[in-house]
Structures are given as C-alpha cells and as structure tokens.
Amino acid sequence: MAKTAIEGATRGNLFYVYPEDINIPGIDYECGPGDILYNPRNLMDVSEELVTSIIAIGILEPIGVKKDADGLLHVVYGNQRVRAAREANNRLTEAGQERIKVPCLPPIRGNTEDEIGEMKIAENEIRKESSPLVKAEEAALQLRRKNGNIKEAARAFGVTEQYFKELLTLREASPEVKEAVQNGELSAGAAAEVAKLSPAKQKERLRTVIKEGGTIGAAKHNVKKATGKAAEGKPSTALLKELVELRSAGDVLGAKKTGILADDGFWTALAWVTGTLKTEKVKGLKELVDHVSAN
Predict the structure, then answer these.
(1) pTM
(2) Parallel, antiparallel, or unpaired for β 15-17 and 102-104?
C-alpha cells in the first residue's frame, strides 16, 4: 500500500485513486466486530456482476474514505466497489488494458466513531439492500455500539424496533433456516419466528413453512403448532374434505395412514364431521361442511 494514497490522484470535485491504494478492513489488515469499519460483507465473495459492470463502465458512485495519521486511506463505505475494482483491474492488466480508478469523496474528518458507523450503514442501505443475514450481523454490531439500547440502535439503523428485534433473533436461527432466507424461500420475519423454536423443531417446521409460502403468517402458525399453543379454529377445507371422504368410505381411522393425525385441528374436525360436535355451534361451519361434502 502507498503511504500517501492521495498523492498522484486525479483531482476534480472528487479525487480518483487506484483501488489497490485504498485499505479494505478485514482484507488488508485484521479487523473484527469491535472496529467501527468492520464489514461482514467483506467475508463474502465479490459480486461477479459488479466486476463485469466496472470493467464495462467503471464506478459511477463515489466511495467514502478516511485517512489515518500515516496518510493511508481506509474504506468507510463502498467496500464492495473497491473489492470488485481490484478484481476488474486484475483482468484488465492481463488483457493489457488500462486499469481503472475509484472515485472518492473528500476524506471524512472530525466525526466520532458512532457518527461514522451510522454514516456507513446509511450509505450502504440506501445504495443497495443488504441480505437479511448481513443486516442481522450489522444490527448486532449497531446494538453493541449503542450499549444495548434497542430503541437507539433501531433509530440509527433506520428501521422499526420490531424489525430490528427480528434481525437480532435471525442470528439465532439454525443453518437450515438461514439457508432458506439466503435462497429467498423465507422472509426475514418468518425466519425470526421459526428461530424462536429449538434447533430440532426449526428443522421440523421449516419445510412446512416454506410450503405454505414462507410468510410470517405461516411461520407464526407453525410455531404455535410446534409449541402446542395453536388455538382451536376452523380447520382447512382440505382437511375437512379428507375427513368427509374417509367417513364416506367408512374408514375414518384411515386418517392415520395419511399423516393428518399430526394436525392439531384433526380431533376437533373429526368431532365436527362425525356429528359428535354439532356444526351449528361454530359459526359458518355447517355451511363449510355442506360445501365440502357437495364437492
């Protein structure tokens, strides 16, 4: 790394520096969660799409940097652009083409670490939506900086307290649940709900939640089932229809073979369908049973 990274830079309203002359925390030097410049995304692979874009049109958005006492530049925000620019330059050098420079805003001066942390998060979130898993890690870091004050941490993070709490819960999710979030099969809110269960129960309920749409509603319903807190309510049309068909075939106990005995509404539904519990006692149930029976 050059000791005075700004020297020799092309100047204008911005200044332009080769990405190799900008220090990336966690890559060019050790940087842990306790450092204000720590960025968990630096542990992930560089985006191929970003590298290709930089080779084609360069970097359009300037990055934020700070200069240390030795004159070295460090990324405050724009880590992924600098990383991708380095890879782009490797390919350009191999092809015998001119390397690109990174546009930088004037170095940040006179800000507290807390202000720099908020600035970094705000710019990254506005520029591009982070994945829920990355947000969860950043939320935990922000909470630490705010000494455990969730209200203040959520405000600085730019989200509601409820969503901030969901992100923190998401960190406790099992690997299977996190993978489902990463693959877009499960929303962050749904994953946070599932993460309230033990690891074994998370795995047990995950496929069902995904099958039901991966929504927070599906997750809450399945969490209640797993904890035995599901309120008795009108069973699904599919469940009623299956029970009606089994009764018509004179084989109600055949339900055991279908696996629907595991449904927490099975026994109530069975009582309704077999007449043990009069359908008139539950608003709308008689009409539903009649409709299912007729179809």
Answers:
(1) 0.43
(2) antiparallel
